[in-house]
Structures are given as structure tokens and as C-alpha cells.
Amino acid sequence: MTRWLSTIWRMPDLRSRVLFTLGMLAVFRLGVHIPAPGVDREALAKYIESNSDTMFGLYNMFSGGALQGFSVFVLGIMPYITASIIIQILTVAVPALERISKEGQQGRSRITQYTRYATIGIALLQGLLMVAIPLESAKTPAGAAIVLEPGWNFRLMTTITLAAGSCFVMWIGEQISERGIGNGSSLIIAAGIVSQLPNAVQNTILKLQNDEVNLLQVTLIAFGMVLVIGGIVWIERAQRRIPIQYAKRVVGRRVYGGQASHLPLKINTAGVIPPIFASSVLMAPATLLQFTAFPALAALAAALQPGAWLYNYLEVALIVFFAYFYTAMIFNPVDVADNLKKHGGFIPSIRPGKQTAEYIEHILSRLTGAGALYMAVVCIMPVIITRMYGVPFAFGGTGLLIVVNVALDTVAQIEAQLLTQHYDGISGPQAPGMGAGRRRMMGDVASG
Predict the structure, then answer these.
(1) What strands, in cross-sheet order, belong to the sheet with 345-346?
(2) What is the largest CA-CA distance in the chain?
(3) For residue range 433-445, what is the model confidence (pLDDT) as tens digits?
(4) Bigger pLDDT: 131 or 334?
(5) Cα angle vertex 362, ends 87, 408, to 5°?
(6) Which CATH number describes the domain made up of 197-394?
(7) Of 255, 256, 321, 380, which alpha carbon lies 20 to 30 A from 206's?
């Protein structure tokens, strides 16, 4: 690990990317502690603490504790994620948007711009609904009001503040994705979840001291978290390798090709996107319905809280849906089959072209189903165990899945950068006086 970090530090481009990412995450964490106006934050913190097992606790986790302190970053990255879901679905459903998305870099830039506009609208709407319904209606267990001066002045001022904060978080995420390491939106969510770890450990110690839980329960929880993390790493690293054979080609007096290779397909091709999208879709209606006065809607709101039966069923269904949807967005078997055919590659005993695409799609469909089932189990089982036995589980399965996935993806991108620098050092010209240092650096990369 020390050699790996020292190698990163000696590469200027990679070092600047890592430092830029850490700097942007530090700016995000600093903004979480900047309070928005008009709310009694101590009363809100007590209310969140008393409702930690409801949708407010989940929202507070995704925002990195911003809701508990009513920060300017309360909305966080969730409006941007919701806008991304809507735009991606519309890109598939609307032919005009589909044509734009296929126009290369210019088309992708236009789609990104539409996503930004949708983020602003969703942030304004979500901010208004949050301050007008939950905050003005919520009271602490002692009966204290959370909003100091309710009314339209508070609603408009706070809505604009929260929407501006959400747009700034969106900008941070885009800057990390463009100039840093890793996916900016996922890193922001993961950073918010990890920031809750000290409080979770402190609360667990307090419960242990107050005999609310015993040492055996805490030990089993820690052991279970280690097992879950190990299982996530093992499955995320697993691949289904489809054998590829390249035909021999004679060009002049030379013979090219003829070698064997493979096409790697991950079990979880969609990565961490399905649980994030599923939580984002469930979060808004469950939060708003919690403050309804109608008995039927109140019962529906109770069933939509984390761990309740309806929430569990809907989360599983949404995870499966988004796993297939996002996999179809990022992986096209027809394009893969065409590329193999153009380069003289084929799958043994499978005809090139249409049959190859169907074969790859069949395998990918089964892998996606297995990956969706694995994500659903990881997200739901810890919540069920917590509800059944009343034991504290710091993040829940969704948080663990997001953090481990983001960590693996970030490390993979760093290793890709290291590998790129390694090959650049081999093929590119070396500056005078840099040969020995470059060779030592490449040796570190190869050994790491």
C-alpha cells in the first residue's frame, strides 16, 4: 500500500487528479456544516434522532448529515440523480432525444445540459415541498416547532437557498468526474455515508454502556458487516468470461491474428446505480405522505418507511428494473458483436453477427438477473434483521453496497491511470535525466 501511494504521488497527472478529488470532497463536507436560514436546528436534530428509522433517517444518511443540521446542502445530489433517471428514460422513449444522444460528443453535451435544467426544476420543486409540508408540520417529541417563522417568506427564501446548494453539489460532482478520479455523484454519496461512521460508532458504544444492546449483538453485527463487505467485493470482482477466437489474416508476407482471448462480463454490470436510483425514487413520496391526515394515506406512508413490507417489495422491484435498464443503457450486445466481426473475432461454435449478439444478450440477461438478486439481498436483509431483532446496523445494506462499490470503482480507475502511465513510459520519449526515475516508477507500478 505504501509503495502504491508513493507511486501515485510521483505521477504529476494522477497526483493532481487525486488531490483535486479530495479537495472537492472537502468543499462538499464544509458546505454540509453551513446552515440554511429559518429553522431551529437543535429541534430538527432531535426530530431526526427520534425518527432515525423512517425515511428521514435514510435521507439524512444520503445527504451526509446535512438534513440533521439543515445545511444549504440538504437536497444534496439527489435532485441531479432524479433528473438523470428521467432524462435517461426519456432518451429511450423519445426518438428525438435518442437521436441527439447518438450525435457524439455534441449530443452528449446537449443531454447533459438538459439534465442540468431538469435538476434545477426538480431541486426547486423538492425544496418547496420539503419546507412547506414536512418542516412546517413537524414537531419534536416535546412539541417544539422546527420552523421559527412559517410562511411564504420562509418558503421562498429557503427553497431558493436549497436549490442553489443542490446545483452547487451537482457542479462539484461534475468537476470530480471530469478532472478528478471516480464518478463524482457516487463519491459524494459515499462520502456522506462514511461521514456518519463516527456517530454510528459513538451511538453503538452509548447503547452498549446503557445496556440497550449487549456485547454479543455488537460482535455479531461487526462480523456480519465484514461478511457482507467480503461478499460484495467477491461478487463485484467476479466475471463471466466468454471465449473469443480471432481468425488468422495474411497481410503481405505477415500473418496476423489467430490468438485466443475472452470477453469479460461482470455479474453486476450496472454497479451501484440501481440501489441509488431505487432509493431516490422511493424517497420523495414516502417523505411527503408521512404528514398526511387521511388514514389510508397515513397507512400507505407507514408501509413505505424503510424496513416496512411495501418499501421492501418496491425497493427489490426497482433494483431489478434499474439493473436491467442501466445495463441496457451502457452495454449493447449488437455493437459488441459487430465490433468482433469487424476485427475477425468470433465465439467458438457461434456464428458471427446476429447469433453472437443473441448469445451475448442471453448470458448478460442471466448475469444481470443474478446481480439484481444479489443487490436486493444485500440492501434488504440488514434492514429486516434490524427490524426483527432491534439491533443497530450503522449503514444498512444500501449504504454498505454503495460505499464498497464506489471504493472498488475508484481504485480500479486509479489502477487504470497507473497502467496508462506505465505504457506511456514504455512507448513515449523520455526526457533527459528522467530515465532512471521513470524506470523505478514503472517497476513500482508493475510490482503494485
Answers:
(1) 260-266, 239-246, 345-346
(2) 88
(3) 444 343 333 343 3
(4) 334
(5) 60
(6) 1.10.3370.10
(7) 380
